[in-house]
Write a structure and sequence with these properties.
Layout (H helix, E strand, L loop, with lengths): L1 E3 L6 H8 L3 H7 L14 E3 L10 E4 L6 H8 L3 H6 L15 E4 L5 E3 L7 H8 L3 H7 L13 E3 L17 H14 L4 E7 L5 E7 L4 E7 L8 H18 L8 H7 E6 L4 H9 L8 H7 L26 H7 L18 H13 L3 E7 L3 E3 L8 H14 L2 E3 L8 H9 L3 E6 L11 H16 L2
Helix pairs in contact: 1-2, 7-8, 8-16, 14-16
Length: 452
Amino acid sequence: MLYTVRSGDTLFSLARHFGIPLRDLLAANPQIDDPDQIFPGQTILIPSAPKPGSPSQYVVRPGDTMARIAHRLGINLVSLLAANPPVENPNFILPGQLINIPANPLAQYVPQPVDTLFLIAHKFGVSVQDLISANPQVLTHPLPGQVLVIPRPPGPNRIVSVAAEYGYQDLRADITTLLATYPFLSQQVIGYSVLGRPIPAVKLGQGPHQVCYCASFHANEWIMTPVLMRFVEDYARAYRRLVPLHNANVRDLFQSTTIWVVPMVNPDGVELVQQGITPGHPYFEAVIAMNAGSRNFDTWKANIRGVDLNDQFPANWAAEKARGRPEPAPRDHSGPRPLSEPEAVALAELTRRQDFQLVIAFHTQGEVIFWGYRDLAPPESEEIAARMAARSGYTAVRNAGSDAGYKDWFIQEWRRPGFTVEGGRGINPLPITHFPKIYADVLPVMLCAAQP
């Protein structure tokens, strides 16, 4: 049925009202690019409540892959592929194509000749015993061609699912669900990207001590966005359940500290790295030229105009400009002037408005915590960095030897603690398999920095 949106409606409230899963409502309305922005008078499709065991359907959008659909709708990729046998290449599906969304929460897997029960259990993150219990027909070894049922991994159901690339649409959908699930969270759009994408900030807590955590200044460092989003979810869950988070008393922290999380400073750049660019895009020719004709954007750090957003702040900007690239480029171009880019302006205005006591810019890679800037950092910065290093296993380093970064500007203007945390090790973009370790290392850093 068609429904006309009324004042106060959200996708979450409509899904609950009509008794349908939120993912089915999203699947039925692929025209909704921003799940937390629907408007009175807008017409949306309300799908019928699915019958037990029957699949719903999803209309493929430009840029979709099977992995992206599974992540967006919060279902298992193996189960999604099993429900769509005509799909031969999961990375090549066409806009307008109908994809079956399985109602069965269990995934199926066809063993390969080299598989053992241990290898299959390890692959899907379940115990061997649970795998055997779900497949009583398997006596000792799985047989090639035999269909196994893969039970859900143990642990809490996650809103922020990190099984594949985490992009801007994933971010917006997860923020929508988090706000509906945890009403004590709030969101503010702090500005817009070059291409007009809203840049969201999520607010945790209500205390006078205000801090800011931000990520994905650099497009190919997008893995830090789900790190920050998982932190938001775990913090909110711990607060609601009155339980500690990594030995931190979240209830007390909520009252003493307000944490502002800006998970993706550079949404246009992240999309470019993850999805590429096609003719017809307003920056197609310029981007291809900047990238030396290549369609591979793994080394791209800049925004869509070829400006490095972490070289944009008025902290000895001219010195950084002289060291970098003179023209727009995939990295290291500081722009025509400080704060020329709307993404940098949005973060700068939030910082001025909220009067933060501490900020952290999250990047990759190196497992390093930079805490100084040209001898301007206050004495407590070194002490805080030492505590964060001790809890994370990262190395605390005074200066990065660069200028014009966000934490550089913050330290220069306010003489308060500012940090750049380089998560993980490897070559950017770090693979999503690095997420669990990065999050485990960085979680205590965020909790430590939030203490007033």
